[in-house]
Each structure stands twice: as C-alpha cells, then as structure tokens.
Batch of 4 targets.
Target 1
Amino acid sequence: MCHISYQHYEPLSNNHNRRDSLSNSVRDISCLLQPTEARRMNEQAPSDIKAEHELCKRKRVPSLNYPAVTQTALLEGPEALKPLCCNATHRVNVFLLIYQLGTCCVYVVFVSSNIKAIADYYTDTDVRLYMLIILLPLILINWVRNLKSLAPFSTVANFVTLVSFGIILYYIFREPISFENRDKVGTMSGFALFFGTVLFALEAIGVILPLENEMKTPKKFGGSFGVLNKAMILIVTLYIGMGFFGYLNYGSAIKGSITLNLPEEKCKHLAQCVKGMLAFAIYITHGLACYVAIDITWNDYLKKNLGDSPRSTFYEYIARTVLVLITFLLAVAIPNLELFISLFGALCLSALGIAFPALIQTCTYGHHRQGMAKVWMVAKNSVIGVVAMLGLVIGTSTSMIEIIHTLGHDD
C-alpha cells in the first residue's frame, strides 16, 4: 500500500514557523531526495539478495531470512565484528518488530482520521473515539492466521486505492496548476523529519528477501528490468507526483494525508467516498502489515517457550490481540499521522534499510575482494553507515521533540 502522506503539523497551531519550514523543506528536496533514496534502495536491495545467495552457497542452505543473513554475515566478517553475531538476530528482530508495529500505528491513525473527516460533516467528535470504534474490527482481522487468506484483501485494497488515486488526481488537476504564492526555496530545518518520512515510504527491507525467496523465478526480482526496479519506478513517480502537485494545489495548508485536504463544498460526496474507500483499503490490509510483527513475536519467541502446550492456539490469539492493543494505545497517545511516519522511519529504517545492508555486504565480501575493489567497498559502506547513524539519531530525536510539542499542545 502507498501511504499518501505529507509533512505538515496541523496540531501545532502555535508553531507556524516550524510547520512552514518543514513544509518548505519537504517540497524543495522531495523531488531530489526521493529518487536518490529509491536509487540507493535499488542498489542496496540487490546487494542484500546477492549476499544472501552467497551465504546460502557457503552454508549450503536453501534460503535465509533477514535476521539470519545478518548473523551469518557477521560470522563471515572480520574477527572484531564476530562477537556481535551472538545477539544479531534479536537486534534485527527488535528493529523489524518496532517498524512493523509503527506501520500498524500509522494505519490506525490513517483510518480513524479519515473516518473522522467523513463524520465531521455531521458531528464533531474526537479522533480517539473512532480509534476505539475500529479496535474490535482490527482485532478480528488480525485473528486470521493464514497468510494466504489475507491475500484477497490486498487485491481488493489495491483496486480501491487505484480508483481513489484517480479521484484525488481529479481534485488536484480540476483547476489550473499555479506557482503563485508558493515558495520556491525553503529551509533545511525540517530535513530530519523528512528523512524519516522518505525512509518509511520507500523502504520495505523486511519483506524483500522473503518475496525473492517465495518467487517461482527469483532471478526476475533483481536486475535492471526486474520486479523491484519496475515497482520502485511506479512508487517514486506516485510519491513525487502526489507530493509536488498536491503542494502546488493546497500550499502550506497541506495535511498529514492529502485526503484530509479534499474540499467539502464542491463534489463533497465524491470527496467523502475517497476518504471512506482509502480508510477501508488500509483497514483490510492491517492484518498484512501486522503479520510480520505477529510472526516474529509468536514463532520466534513465545511459541518456543510454550513448547507443545495444548492451549497453544489460544495463547496465539492472546498474543495477536495484545499486539493490536499496543498499536491502538500508541495511536491514541499520539494521534498524529506524519509524526508516526517520521519517527519510525528514522528510528528503524536508518538501521534496517541503510546501516545493516552496508554491514552485511562488507562482512560477506570482506575476505573475498582485494585491492581497490575492497577499499572502495569498505569506504563506501563506512560512509553509508555514518549517514545511517546520523539519520537515526537526528531524525529520531527531532521526531521525539515534535511529539513532545504535540503532547504539550494537546494538554
């Protein structure tokens, strides 16, 4: 699913300078950074796949998941890094778990915010009430244990999303696009938040290796004209197009989701339909978004400790319910779509999508490359690692500061 999101902080009404600098930063660098990040991902993802293939050959196993690739690569790497392999699987699982639960929080906020936007036409109610209303349906859809049973929901959601995109584009282009009263140059003060947003939008490192492993012809996944590159071209085009033209249309009034900017005066019923359709599409894919978190929590940890308990299935349903409740409580505490996106993007994907792949490549091929090829690989990955750590620290701290400001304003 494609998150139609923008960096604009509506709740911080007493902080116009922060909002304006952020929206300017997003507008000015989005067209540059999103293709750059997409290109970096397209380079890193194939390197992860190649590293996995290489490690599978060495270990004589059919496939490895992302945590296992990280641990195995560290074992193959320099002696100084080998002690890190002991808990590598757990570290990667923690980042994956936080990211997937963060994605589910974004889904909860997105669905409830759009339902509120529809209901506000009739009554003004706190968004948290709508979160409470959708809680039981969210729990029930996450009780579906078979991943294949969730696949039809994804198909329906994709169709609904495409139709919604068409309607949103109608609203964007129904009036002439103009640069009038639109700042052409902004500031860098909001870059850290935007960095996290771009990572959240474009990274899917937790599913890249599983997808490649499950394909009938895995060789078609990578390559210049592979599935990954084709998908990224489409996604980046959608993000840049929606972001650029959405800003030209709505200016600094742009909200966390463009659906919340759709006009209510003209063609109001069509606008309400779009909000409802996208809320429905995101809701029915919540089970897919939470599936990885459930799989890690249950299969990698809880199930092993329970052994062959006759009540294992009951405990699994309890675990699924608890994970949904965690995402619900986080969403209730901070019902801010764009802050969630930026926080979890910077916190988790700086490591999962940038630092760890660079580390995996260095450890996997460190002893097998010589001369300038080795020097170039180590230097490149060292720079990538530094950028990742800076993004993690600065992006996460900036997002947390904004969250504290939001909580203070709500109080």
Note: Residues 1-34 have pLDDT under 50 and may be disordered.
Target 2
Amino acid sequence: MKPISHPFLSSSSSTTLLFSASVLLVFISCTTTTTTTEAAISLPKNVTIPAVIVFGDSIVDQGNNNNIKTLVKCNFPPYGKDFMGGKPTGRFSNGKTPADMMAEELGIKELIPAYLDPNLQDKDLPTGVSFASGATGFDPQTPAIVSVISLDEQMKMFKEYIGRLKGMVGEERTNFILTNSIYLVVAGSDDLANTYFTIGIRRLQYNVNSYTDLMVRGASNFVKELHELGAKRIGVFGAAPIGCLPSQRTLGGGILVRHCAENYNQAAQMFNAKVPVALSSLKSSLNDAKARLVYIDIYNPLLDLIQNHEKYDLVIINREQGLLLPIKGVVALEISKITLTAEENAQPVRVCDLCMAEVSQRLSNAKEAASKSVGLQSHEDLAKKLHEEMERNRKPSSGFRSDGSSGRRMKEVARPTCTVHLQV
C-alpha cells in the first residue's frame, strides 16, 4: 500500500508518474466505500472514490472508436500485444491505458470499459466508463475532420449515462457517484498536432496564441458543464510534447534527422500554461467549496522520459528512430515491427514508417486539391472539403495489395486505420 498524506503529492518515480493523476485528485469526502479490486493506494478512511469517469482522446479511448464509422481505429495488431491475452481492444496502446491504471490503483476495478462497447454490462456503470474517442479535441473542427466523437457528443453520452444510472441505483446513489467520482478530461494534443500544424486549416484564421485561447475556452466550458451535472473532482490533462511524437518528428522535425519539432512543443507549452489559469478562474466563479479542478502536467514527465531515458532504465537502441525500450522491466512504448509481406523470409517493416509515408502523401494530395477548390467561404468549408478529399484518396498504396494474393501485400488489419492513428 502507498499511503497518501496530502492531495498534491508528486513523485519522480517512473511508475508513479503514470498515476500522478490519482495522487493529485484525492479529495476529502465524508463517507467510505468498499471496492472489489485490491487498491495499491491506501485512501484515508473518510475518502471514497466510487468511479473513474473519462472523456477525451486516444490516450483514454478504451475502444469507443471501434463502434463508429471512422478511419481512426486501432483494433488490430500490434496494438494490445501486452494486454491480457495479447488481443487488440481498441485501446491506443500496447496494454492498459492511464484510465485503467488509475482505476486499478484506486482499487475500483481492473479495467475501465468503453461506453459504446456492445458488451458493456449494467454492473459496469456505477464504477465508471470512458466516453473518449481517439483523435478528438477541444476544437470542434478536430473531431469533424476524421469523423470521431466530439466532446459535445461525449457530454450527451454522459447525460445518457446519468439517466441509466438513476434507473439502476436510484437518484440518491447516482448523486453520490457523481459527486465523489474522479473525472479525467484528456484532450488538446490532436488539436495542435493535427488540426493546427499537420492539416493547417486553423492557421488560416488563428495564430498559435489565439488558437490555444480557443482550445482553453473549449476546455473551460466543458469542465463547467461537467460541474453543472454534479462533478466535483475534475482533472484536466495538459498537452503532451507533441513535437516528439513519431509522426510529428517526421513531418515537422526534418525527414532525415527527425528531431522533436520545437515549434510544436512550444505551442503545447503555451496551451499548458493557460489551462491552470483558466481552471483557477473557473473555480472562483463556481462558488462551490467542494469543487476541485486540477491541472495534470503530462508534458514535463514525458519530455523527461525522452531526454533523460537512462533515469528510467530505458535505452535508445536506434538513435535515428529514437526508440525507447525497457531494460529493467519499466513499461515504455516502442515502435513495433510486423511483417507486411507475404514472402516467408521477409524482413519486418516498421508500421510507423509505412503509415507515415502514406498519410503524408494523402494529406499533401488532399490539401492541394482542397486549396484549388472554388467557393470556399470559411475554414469550415475548407475542413469539409479536406475531409472529402481524404476520403476520396483512400486507396491502397502502389506495391501493396489487400486481396490475399501472393507477392508483397499489406495485411488488411494494418490498413487503413494506422495511417490516421499515427497523427493522433
């Protein structure tokens, strides 16, 4: 057990970094509860956290995108290779997500289910679900471009969830769950990495400063509505160092050297600096002593993991690609390799490289076609046209076939979803 003596403890441990949200969001309540999973964190006797309820993007998408019509999916290998049974579930991860880890640390349950999972059971609802959708953002244009679930739609799903809870456990218990649960809001990285920098439609209207203002307003309005529906303990994640994502290093860091794109990271830092100020202002306006609005920094821990990997027992085995692998059992992400050819002795190919080459070409073609279109009156028109062009260009790349015939071919599961996910 890891006892908690203060709601704002922090740690430099690579393990507890993943669970900093669970430490930051421990708030005092007046009742107790029992849980079915053994907690790794020992809560004070007068604190209860009945559920973890999650909104946002691919960081906490537990599989909702499996059940909507979008390119942004990851229900294929190598995703899920370290998950139970080694099966892809729609989580944008090799294993569990931060939402799963937090629920398990708090002793609530081992896994947070996706709200749209067709196998979701009523008994799962009182302990929390995820409404998150990979590639969404605070900017309404971000989910619209790739046809994923917007935060407005996630809020509507949450309202439906509340109604289902009331039908199951009654209004009094529902209000207790809403008041005492932890809420995570994880978005913003896709707004910057995709909508602003990669696709660029918002650069027609905003500079980085004004665009991050738009993002922060979206975050603040979302948190305010959550509070109006009964939420008290709300944690808002900052943006990650998006310039160090594999896709953004390729697109913005130089094709040959693939450095972290510093202007992308600077934009993320600007957004992150504004979020806690907005949350503080919102907290003052709520006039609610029980409300806890917490900013959760993921930028600096992740950047530290990249820049000082040796502290976390990680080693870069390929400096050109910047791969981080565990050497002492510490969990880390790696760019997996799978064979995409039919030849028996074919060399593995990095999925990332293939996907990035294709998505870069598609985006280039789509932007060129969209920019030549006539009758565009606004950035919304451009976004719609760009989406149409990307859909029109969804054809297999030359040299690969998905019909199962002999020769070089792309596995069906590896196409076309990974091409867009790597922008997430």
Note: The first strand starts at residue 2 and ends at 3.
Target 3
Amino acid sequence: MKSCFSDRHTDQSVALFLGGKLSWLSCCKGYSSSSYRPVSCRSPQCALANKPVISTRELCNGTAKNACSIYINNPVTRSVGKGELISDLLNVTSNPDSHETPVTSPRRCSFGSASTAGNILNRLAKTSKGSSSVLSLLPQHAVSFRFSRIFALDLHEPVTNEKTSETRGKIYFGGGPYLHYMSDVEDFVDRVLTYAPLLINPKGKEEYFVDLRSMKVHGITVPINRKLLSINKKTGVGGTKIDIRIPYTTMETSIYKAFTKTYAEWVERYNANSSTSLNISMVTPVAPFTTSFNSSTVPMVNMFHRTETPSVSFIFPKSVWNIVLFDLVRVSDGVDCVGFVDGGSKPTTSIVIGARQIGFLQFDISGSKLGFGEPYIHEFMQRTSSLLVTWFISFFNKIISSFDPKFKKKLDKIFLERASHT
C-alpha cells in the first residue's frame, strides 16, 4: 500500500494489515516534513494509542518536550520497538467510480514513528517503510473525511504487468459504489454483495471473525467437528477469521484432512460420471499443498458456467460465500494445487481465510457485517485471454524470427489488428 504523507506529497510504501492499534513508519534515520507535529503525551490520542495504560504520569515519564512515547509492533514477527506518536498530513485519492465521496485536500492523521533501528521491518515487504493498520486508519478517516465506518478490499484486480502477471489490489474507505466493467454487458455496474455478521472474539477484538457453520466442496458437505468452528469465550480459541497477511486459507489439521478428502471424493465422482475420456489426474503434491492435479485434466471451462456447483462454499447462518475459480493455484507448468494449507493440530484459530480466496470484501464496522462478492467470470476470462494473447505473440515472434524482416513486420501488423478486434 502506498500512502502520501506530508505537505511535500512524499509516497511511503507500507505493509497493509487489517488489525492492529496503530499505523507506523520507520523513522530511525529521521523524518523530514514541515507539516509534521508531535502528539502530546497528555492528549486523548496518546492515551488511546497506549491502551490499557491510562495514567498521564506514565505516558509522559521520560519523554522530551511532552512527546507521546509509544511501542511499535511488527504484526508479522511480533517484535516491538520504541517510538513516538506524531501527526502529519495524509493524502487520500478519491474513488474515481464515485462522485459522492470527493476528497479535495489532505487531512491530518496520527501514526507512530519508530525511532529505533534493528529488526522492526523484518519480514515485511522489501519496499515497506512501516505498517498500515486499517483498524487505526478507518476511525481517523471517518472523522476527517466524514466517511461511514466502512472499508473494502479488492485483492483480485486485473493484471497490471503482462510480463510478470502482477496484480494490484485496492482499498476503499467510506463505502461504494464499487463500479466494475462487465464485458458481457459492455458497461460499468456496481458490485452485488452478500452479507454475513462479523463476530467479536473476546481475546482478539482487533481481528475480524465470521460465523462459519460448514463448508462444501463442489456441493459435497465437508464433515467437520462443529466445536472447532465456535469461539471459546474464555480462551478465544477456535472460530474463523479473515487475515490478508497469509496467502492461502489455513485449516486446523482435522478440518484440513476432511476438506482434502472431500476434494478427492469429488474427483472420483467426476471421473466416474464423466461423459468424456478425459479424467482428472492427481500428481505428486507440491509443498505447502497436499492435493495437486495435472493442469491439462482439470475441467476449468466448466467453472465458467454459473449452472455448475461452486468449487468451495463457506456456509453462514443466512448466506453462502462461494469461492469460485480461486480454490486452485497454478504452482508450475502443468500442475494445479488446491490452494488451502494445513494450519496445525492446535492453532489459535481453526480456519483463517487468506488473501488468495478473499477476492472482494466489504467490512461494515458500524453495522457489524461482512459483505462479499464472487469474482466476475467474464472478467476472469478476459484477464486469462489477455495473458494468452501476450504469450502467443511472443511465441509467434520466435517462430518467424528467422523470416525476412519486412515479411515479419507485415505478419505482426496483421496479427495485432486481428487481436484488437477479438
């Protein structure tokens, strides 16, 4: 995530996390900004950043110029460093799809300044200069920009770099609309969301839990010990949460074994009922996954039809979240793996839904509900087609590289003209 701080409009790359009390930057080499201000140790912001410490005497003890002394936490390594609470101007880009929430000027935002070097940035992205907590940014944005206490994540944006297949996600503050281009209707439409209630874990109030009741794989119910899906009110153990820090959904060992076994049962049923001679072939699994297939035998085309049963379904009391298309991961040429991971026999949380399976989510904090949208099939096909065209152009150029240069140039022009009309 890139945030633009200070009156100089300096971009700072930070790692984005859903929970956490405080956003922070590593400023051990100094922080240069004419709009920077230290936050007083006697201010409400300082007390809030240092909860549960409530004594002003403790907050101001040993600080220079009544600066607010805080502890910085790395959300990945859990390492802690010392710092100060400061404020500066934060520039937020308006949602280009909405005319209801214009942002015309920067607003002042409080965040931590890590004044010590060492390992505070360990295991964050190499370009990251700190950590950005949505939980700490949201209330400040809500007050400064008069937004609703709603934010949304779009982690399945179209490819932005055809050479590396890189994608770029988005985060929205203040609600929709979340307009998206639909190739089948040739127009922009708002996302259609389905909702499930957000739960509070008494031992993890900064995290986002949901009331998952069961799961299905291609319509087959996964046998799960229901007790594992409940949150223990005394210990906070169990339940299901959302966490974008992990790439793939993790499951407690017994749940994972039942899940992968159900997937294998679906493969057997598919092969037994297949009207063609092409059966799904399992191959040697690739770590960290345990269930892998020969890519050429996986019936991907069937997943483009809405009449097919979803690949994986998360069942809530009054709604269903279908994980379409993103249950499998292409790990190498010719190998697709079920993109879920064994989370161990005694994890704190039984199921942690990771970034690969998330897609688009809206978190309505005031309404205590989670909105989720399935990936648009036509967009996925358009993205896949774009990659295929790029690959074919490269392959085509290699074949004709030995041809006469003038003839090769004519062929390139003809092919690109045809491709632009498809």
Note: The chain has seven helices and 31 strands.
Target 4
Amino acid sequence: MARLTPEIDVNLNLPIIKQLELKNIFTVLDFLEEDADRLCTITGLVYKNIIEIRRQILSKFSAKSNNGLECYKKMLVMTAKINTGIKKLDDLLEGGMLTGNIYEICGLSGIGKTQLCFTIASHVTTNLKQPVYYVDTKHDFSSQRILQIMRTHHFNDMEIQAAMENLKVTRVNDIYEMITFLHSLGSMLENMPCRLIIVDSITALFTPFLNEQRNDGLGLLNHVAATMKRISVTYQTVFVTVNLATSFIDNDDLDGQQTADVCWYGDIRPKLGKAWMHMPASRLLMHRESSMPDHERIVTLIKSTDLQLAKKCVLKVTSSGLEG
C-alpha cells in the first residue's frame, strides 16, 4: 500500500506526516480508515482540509470505473474478423476468425493442416498486406510452398517480396523456447502490430511429456494456453494452433485421461487431453471420407463458443493451397 507523501496534497506536508506516523498512520489506507475528527486533532488541520486530502487520495489511488457502453464501443473498434481467403471456410466461420481468440486446426497426420496454415498465411500477407508470425515447432516450414501459393495467385515479384518480409518465421525446439518466445511477443507486437499468429504445431511441443508420471507438461500446457489467451485479448490478435488427432483410443494425453465424452467426431479425437480440450474458442477438424477424391478434405466445426456446431465445408488441395 502507498505511503503518505507531500505529493498527494499541498496540506499534507512533512511535519504533518511525521505527526501521523507517531499515531501509526503510515499509508493512504490508514488515513482513509481513521476517523476524520481524530485526524483534525492529530494534524491541526480543519475538517475541510482533511476531506480534501481524502478526495485526492481516492482520486489518485482508487480503481477507475468504466462505463459499460464505452467499453462495448471500444471493443467494437478494436476487434476485427480476419478472413482466411477461402470462401467456403469464411462462410463457415461467418466472415472469418474473430480477433482475441484462439483457433485450432486438428486432424490426422498428413490430412493437410499445415497446407491450410500456409494458405491462410499467404492470403493475410498478400491480399490483406498484414504481418503474420509463424511459429514452426516441427521444422518443416516450406518457403518454396509459400512462394508457389503466392505465384499461382499471380502476384508480381515486388508484391511477393513484401509479403515474404511480412511473414515472420520463428523455429522453436521445445516448450521452454516457446514460452520464451511468448514472453517476448508482447514487445514485438508493440513495435509491429500483428493480427495473426500461427503455431504449427502445439502437439509437437508436448510430445516429450506424454505418459510421464510427474505431470510437468500439464502445468506448462496451462501456462502456454493462458499466455496465448492474454496476448490475443490484449493485442486483439488471432492465434491459430495446429493439433494432431488420433483415430483410436489411447491414454497418450497430458492428463492421462480418455476424452471420449467431449469434442469427438466419430472415432477421431484431438490430442493433449482435457487440459487443452477447452482452451481454443473454436476447433476445426480436417478429415476425409474414403469415398472422396484424394485431393478433397472436409472441414467441420466441432467446437465453438459463438457459432453453430457441426457446420462443414469441402475444400480442395491444389497448387494454389486449399480452395473452396
């Protein structure tokens, strides 16, 4: 608690503060809790001066009240929807990804999750001309594939160069490097605001902790999720995380629990267990049916805090990325 100082009010000089300290009144809270008549006796000040000092203390140290309507208007100004550049997917998301939220793309290995990330990143840096932070945890980021996607959309060399400069790729080797990156991300966003941060993939960071007895990974997972949520809300950005899914029952989760009661789609379920299950605001599952052509994928909304569940669309994997 703040101590009494002469800077609070012109009537609160050092001799008066000394007199108050002799009566065990050291902080602004002590001053506010003390009876006004007794303060007049201790300090020799008139009642009006005591009330003025209290008013100054409340003005300088009290929490500021906010008008609910003004907060709502500020939120409308700050928030935005980042479209993915894929019409069917944007329709499914009712316009795009809402800033201040964490989105997850999950699916079986090789289904096209990274290709979807490449497509979204290429669109944001070229068409929207906004920077993108891309966190590569698998060390499989392909600049050649990004260039191919951009060139098939007929951007010229100068536009492609500007877009590639806006794509900030960071490779992390483990969860500790990821935490270090997240802690430095705030200052990076202060210098270069960014609406989209892609983490491909979140599963790779926690694989070393699966099936361990001490549950260290569970605490780290909660820390990473809370930090990403704080950053997304504070800087009104979107986190897109990639999570692996499995098509069989196992206990390879950080919490050691099966998750058959939540967020399943048929026999497919996301990894990382219940600890991560409710962290993303929206979860998109990429999958395909056996009767479908090899280049087609279904994207189904299996979790959302504000959209209708089970909505789906069919996308095609092409040289231009995912289209639909």
Note: The radius of gyration is 27 Å.
